[in-house]
Amino acid sequence: MAGAAFIMLIATVAGGGCNFIYQVMMANLIPDDLAELNTLLAILYIVTVPASAVQNVLIRYVSKYNALEKPDVISWLMRRIFILTASAGVALAIVIVLVLSIPEVASTLKISSNTGVLLLGIAVLFAMLSPVGQGPLQAFQRFVAFGTLTVGNFVLKLSMGVGLVLLGYGVAGGIGGVLIGLAFASGLSLFMVRRYILRKGTAIDSGEIWWFTVPATVAQLCFTILTMVD
């Protein structure tokens, strides 16, 4: 337990440090566009609140059925949630791009980067898929892999985001760094648990899971409102 806690601590601190440096660099490199960048990032964080709830559900029930030695049930659960989150991610991405492309909305939110909006839509899709891979990694106690993905995500966000901004891509470059980090963590985590997703598995009564999902989502939404509503 101490080893796992230490790994998670290092990953959390390193990730938070990268996020802090990212914000400092953006404030210095694109000060006139910082508000627009933060608006797009805020939209990304808010609309992906359900993803955090999905991750909590997967951690709980993959742990449970792993302990019960029921890999077929895990496959059914992960495959089902993968399809659900992929569909929701595509729908959310399309809605966000369309809404932010409305001139009145873009003007009100001071959004001028069409490329940034498009990249934001793609980032939403990866953010919705991410818990399907990362949740089970925690449930299977693969903390080294999970910690590595977490650090890799934020290191890429920082390095690629700053690099793209330095190349002159502005807000789109800042969002591009976020997208690259998310794609790396999401794609690699899904690859690590692919053998469960690719199998059809054995269906079970999902009533208990849905009853847990609802309060988990509400709790995550309330926490996000408290910390992100501004």
Q: Can you give me a brief rundown of this structure?
A:
With about 230 residues, this protein is an all-alpha fold. It is built from 10 helices and no strands.
The coarse silhouette is globular
Number of DSSP helices? 10
For the termini, the CA-CA separation is: 37 Å
Main sheet makeup: none
What are the segments in which pLDDT stays under 50 over at least 5 consecutive residues?
none
Helix percentage: over 70%
Bin the strand percentage.
under 5%
Computed Rg: 18 Å
Task: Provide mean pLDDT, rounded.
Answer: 90
Could you walk me through the main structural features you see in this protein, from its secondary elements to its overall organization?
The model has no long low-confidence stretch (mean pLDDT 90). The termini are far apart. Helix 2 crosses helix 6, helix 4 runs antiparallel to helix 6 and helix 7 packs antiparallel against helix 8. The protein is mainly alpha-helical. The protein has helices at residues 2-29, 34-47, 49-67, 71-100, 103-108, 114-139, 143-166, 170-192, 194-197, 207-228. It is globular. The chain is built from ten helices and no strands.
